[in-house]
């Protein structure tokens, strides 16, 4: 393929990614428009609603001004004043990243990888701008700058990952004018320090991944254990079939938020479901919460052994550090000495705290007016406690891992000598 054909195919793929993201909300809303409303309402109302959901899922803030009759029917304090929706339905962002990775891999497999990747991202930005300016109404207005930048950055992250990973070994993704200066700067860092920083990045990232896996399993078990409560909340809403399907799709998009909230719960600070509320390993204190059936899986009351959840980041940080240390000792130019190992463990905690804090920030926001402006974890507390928990455990793990590696080598030498 020549350069023009490659660019056109990349633009088409970006269009398909946007269509999938918007279509997830638009298809059920369109069916609802035809079956429940009998085509009696302007279809663009549902189009704007679908675009708003897609933008919100990519982190774009929505300014809301509800009509008087709606605020009267809701009976929520503060609903009559303008408010913002800032809590992202992260399922849409996760989908955009995964599809972006696919686009990046396709770009890396062409002769014009930079052209393909750049065209895909620019096309995505153009489409995001068009969607943002088509969605504004007197009731809901997306932030225009965010509407252009944030969805594009989310997709570009996936494209970057997809384009970089396949060609990392061969070093073929980045152009020479960019790769050479970066390589020169990295070579100025002592080899032991580079190895130490790489171990901290790997260990901190692996620790966060482990915490999220445990959090996901905890959410799954909680859904099974509270399934009757979730079904009861569905029945309370009295939604018809299409309304129930639309609600379910929205909740599926919200599952990544719940998983991050569970990780924040294990870290200690927990989450808030409204100003003045808290859900932590030490207990739950909430009043009225949004009527989403998925919220039926959240813990309630005082948990007798809830404090044991605080051991999750500690144990994961320790195990990951032991594994990292054992792999580190097998490499050339690996750092040596107790002080360096302790520093490496502390850096793992720092990386883990930054990553989990950013995820906590991305998953939190305002879900409505009044006290619902504060929903989700406190990212600073989540990040700070993760640094302490994972950092201390990882520092100990880096020391123990070295002792285990030496013990294994000693036993191997003894067996070889006997033979």
TrEMBL record:
Pfam families from the UniProt entry: DUF6350
Keywords tagged on the record: Membrane, Transmembrane, Transmembrane helix
Record keyword Transmembrane helix present: yes
Transmembrane stretches, start-end: 7-33, 81-101, 113-133, 145-165, 204-225, 245-267, 279-299, 305-324, 345-364, 380-401
Residues of the signal peptide: none
Keyword Transmembrane helix part of the UniProt annotation: yes
Protein name from the UniProt record: Membrane protein
